[in-house]
Design a protein that fits this description.
Elements (H helix, E strand, L loop, with lengths): L3 E5 L2 E6 L4 E7 L2 E2 L15 E2 L10 E3 L2 E3 L13 E6 L2 E7 L2 H6 L5 E8 L3 E9 L6 E3 L2 E2 L2 E3 L11 E4 L6 E6 L3 E8 L6 E3 L10 E3 L6 E5 L5 E5 L5 E5 L6 E7 L19 E3 L4 E11 L12
Antiparallel strand pairs: 1-2, 2-3, 3-4, 5-13, 6-7, 8-9, 9-10, 10-11, 11-25, 12-24, 13-23, 14-23, 15-18, 15-20, 16-17, 19-22, 20-21, 21-25, 22-23
Length: 298
């Protein structure tokens, strides 16, 4: 697979034009992104566009149905490199015959990565060169090693920037957002992690109060996700798998029973002709400081 290599001090990252996907990130001597495994989950850090999550039997636009599937099509497209430097790359994708077959809108979509000594920044930029409003959602879905330190999976937790509700939507059949909710064992701002949490799919913190969260493992280190331009966050893994996804979304799956137009779907944004939107996030690695500080970093 062709990749672009980024470097900043001792930090390294590789970005693939295929899907504009970050394939590796190393900071402070640690490989942080999980490498992917076709037997468990083949992706590493897919880019989500022009929808996030599942659609109910595809998308409907102006009375026609389109086979727009899970998380859209960006991860299946090959992007062109528009600009690059030692620690930066901008990859671009425009609508084409394949995309118009499932999403009948013009777009110019860019993914930017910037590497620093302790962080990997990602920005998604959408432009509408067409003559009508274009509905869209976008998101980030990177999987990080669990554990990413030298200890085991036990003892890991996620600390949110602010208190969050101790419940999340139940995921309905087909990956849709159900009307019922299930409790999650919040302990103040902390969510202890365990396989049972993910038995029913992802934990979706919709319209969350926080704009950052930190994944701590038993080593005492943490990976912080800062997502100021995204309204929703999600955590996902397959029970027993050695990764945890820290996800930032502008939208989410269809609600169970939704049968409206794509533009009417809750959480979709409308980009006017000539409009541009930008959504940025940053993943920061904080190594362990000392045994005494392991539960005070956040």
């Amino acid at each position: 697979m062709t990749v672009i290599e980024l470097a900043a001090g001792s930090a390294r990252a590789t970005i693939a034009p295929a899907g504009a996907e970050a394939r590796s990130w190393r900071a402070a001597g640690r490989d942080l992104l999980w490498p992917g495994d076709p037997a468990i989950w083949p992706d590493v850090s897919p880019i989500l566009y022009p929808v996030v999550g599942w659609t109910r039997d595809g998308a409907r636009v102006a009375g026609r149905s389109y086979a727009l599937g899970l998380h859209g099509f960006a991860r299946f497209e090959t992007f062109a490199v528009e600009a690059a430097g030692p620690d930066f790359v901008r990859l671009v994708l425009a609508d084409n015959e394949r995309t118009r077959a499932v999403y009948p809108f013009a777009f110019a979509f860019a993914v930017e990565y910037r590497l620093t000594e302790d962080a990997l920044g990602v920005a998604l930029e959408i432009e509408n060169p067409g003559g009508e409003d274009a509905p869209y959602a976008c998101g980030l879905h990177p999987g990080f090693r669990w554990p990413f330190g030298d200890e085991g999976r036990d003892g890991a937790f996620v600390r949110f920037e602010k208190p969050e509700r101790g419940e999340v939507p139940l995921i309905a059949p087909g990956g849709l957002i159900g009307g019922a909710r299930k409790p999650v064992p919040m302990n103040g701002r902390d969510l202890p992690l365990g396989d049972a949490l993910f038995a029913g799919d992802a934990l979706c913190f919709l319209d969350c109060t926080s704009r950052s969260l930190a994944f701590h493992d038993a080593s005492g280190g943490s990976i912080v996700m800062e997502f100021p331009d995204f309204r929703h966050a999600a955590l996902w893994t397959r029970p027993g798998a050695p990764f945890l996804c820290l996800e930032a979304w502008t939208g989410y799956s269809d609600p169970d029973g939704f049968a409206g137009d794509l533009s009417e779907k809750p959480s979709m944004r409308a980009l006017a002709p000539g409009g541009r939107a930008r959504h940025a996030a940053r993943y920061v690695y904080r190594p362990a400081r000392s045994p005494q500080s392991r539960r005070t970093i956040g």
